[in-house]
Amino acid sequence: MKVWVYVLCVFLGGCSFGVLSTFVKLAYESGFNMFEVTGSQFIIGTIIIWILTLFVHKQKLSFSQMAKLLLGGTPMGLTGIFYYFSLETLDASLAIIFLFQFIWIGAIVEWMLFKNKPSTKKISSIIIVLLGSIFAADIFTSGEKTIDMAGIVWGILAALSYSLFLLISSLVEKEVPTLQRSALLSTGAMIIVLVITNPLSWMGAHTLIDIFPYGILLGLFGVVIPPILFSIGMPQIGPGAGSILTASELPVAVLLSMIVLSEQVIWIQWVGVFIILFGIVLGNVSFVSNKIKRQHLISK
Predict the structure, then answer these.
(1) What average pLDDT score do residues 276-280 get?
(2) By residue range, what is the domain housing residue 120?
(3) Do the beta carbons of residue 182 and residue 231 sit within 8 Å?
(4) Residue 148 and residue 91 in contact, taking contact as beta carbons nearer than 8 Å
(5) How far is it, in rounded angstroms, from Cα 38 to Cα 43?
(6) Residue 145, CA distances (Å) to 2, 36, 222 in order
(7) Distance between CA atoms of 243 and 163, rounded to whole angstroms?
(8) How far is it, in rounded angstroms, from Cα 53 to Cα 56?
(9) How many whole angstroms separate alpha carbon 92 and alpha carbon 208?
């Protein structure tokens, strides 16, 4: 498979996560709380991905392999909980800024664990992406914002858990078929979400029926699509480049807030979006070209 396909998979996985904030806000406006939104997302999403898994080849796994993948899904579930808590207590523009700290956290984690010191180009790319994030979130021109310390903590925790999820997606049991691997990661995420949200406190028939449309959308874009795409792409490109590529989340979030939520998106936010895209290209164009050259030499 061509290397640009792996890059595109991770990029689209980030785009999929960018859809979530819009649907979460719509669910909140409809009167649902974080426990109901997160719980329904992971229950429905995990059911969907297991149904898909029934129709593909599956590998026989040992208890150790299954345990690793189930535990590996924990950061995925925690990211949803932490980020949705942050959205309850912070303005959306601030919450996503804190979530976006995963970009430099991912690079530091890769450096600490694998001694892969970020190149000058990668550091420049991270700085550009973060700068673009600030403009895209419009924190300079939108007036005073209420900064809740609890919201900041939730946002940073979401960034940390998201970085860990990207790392695990690139390392754990890479030889397991994509759908089967994604289903086990999602199951692990669902388990930790249900433990924390306590479904007995909210899972009634009436609530499940009302929240089902949101659960389907959040399940698809938050549980089914990203793990599949990350399982394909992350093992090939690594968590460092992956952290930068998944910054595609923010441009998607800004665009959907304008189209679906009818929010005003001013010019400085679009400047931020293009800065982010430039940073993504800067950080990955040399990586992709080098991988293509290596693949070409191997094919010869």
Answers:
(1) 78
(2) 3-299
(3) yes
(4) no
(5) 9
(6) 45, 27, 28
(7) 7
(8) 6
(9) 26
**CA-based nearest residue to 257, from 17, 23, 87:** 23
Q: What is the pLDDT of residues 140-157, one digit of tens each?
A: 665 555 567 888 889 989
Residue 297 pLDDT > 60, yes or no?
Answer: no
Residue in the structure block whose two tokens are 């991770």: 10
Pair of tokens at residue 277: 């895209």
Cα separation, 6 vs 169, whole angstroms? 13
C-alpha 86/C-alpha 261 separation (Å) is 19
Asked whether 219 and 24 are in contact (CB, 8 A), the reply is no
State the pTM of this model.
0.80
Report how many domains make up the chain: 1
Q: Looking up tokens 């899904």, which residue turns up?
A: 73
- Number of neighbours of residue 113 by Cβ within 10 angstroms: 11
CA proximity to 92, closest of 269, 278, 276, 226: 269
Residue with tokens 């306590």: 198
Structure tokens at 143: 């007036």
Which residues 6+ apart lie within 8 Å of 147 measured at CB?
Answer: 90, 94
Length of the chain: 300
Residue 86: partners with Cβ closer than 8 Å, 6 or more residues away: 95, 98, 99, 151, 154, 155, 158
End-to-end CA distance of the chain: 15
